[in-house]
Amino acid sequence: MRLGLLSYINSLPLTYGLESGAVAVPGGQVLTAEPSRLNALALAGELDVTAVSSVEYVRLQRGYALLEPFCLKSLGPVQSVRLYSLIPLEELAGASIGVTSASATSRALLQVLQPEVRLFTLHQEPVLSAEMPAALLIGDRALRELSGARFVYDLGEEWHRQTSLPMVWALYLVRRGFPEVEKAARAFRASREWGLEHRREVLKVAAERTGLGSERLEAYFAVLDYELDEASRRGLAEFHRRCQALGLFERATV
Fold this sequence. Notes:
- This protein is 37% helix and 24% strand.
- It is built from 9 helices and 11 strands.
- The chain has 254 residues and is α/β, with parallel strands linked by helices.
- Helix 4 (104-113) links the parallel strand 6 (96-99) and strand 7 (118-121).
């Protein structure tokens, strides 16, 4: 099994059992990477089971099916997808916003929330200015502040405020025709159980990777959930509907 896992700490409670080897991966080849890298590998058919940005499922569903019932979602603030700005969100229409290249979903969600922004890819730590009044950061980096920002918007919170629905950030997919789907699902279930039973170890790893304290990390993990339930499906469908209305599926998102 060629397995792709997110390199951010947000997935550790679900997948660290697999990443660490505490839970065996059948025929295991484990790769950890940012969402955009996993998206590209899945698009090339080079992974059997993988996490991908939820917006990418539309392009990938010919070759991949959902590995149920797993996802990465939040209901309300997610804490790790944040827009740092010099001016209010509603005044950013027409502004140039620096966006990390690491995720497709966060980029698409920002366009859903403020369709008239102009996005460009960040290649270094952003410095807010009149030319770039806002920057979108995700993952472990977004758990820290950005100097100079007067406004900080949690995009998960903004999505929930508009829709009252969960935001599904990532999905877990299995390659169509892969013969060991049940084994893969069992491995993920076992990894989730391992994460619950070894919470202190997961927190320790997260602290080592980010430098954040256990209290901050406990609060972060408390807002995340990993089950693709009915409410999540409605949230995902609404997100895809809004992306489709903006023509985002016709644009490059990796």
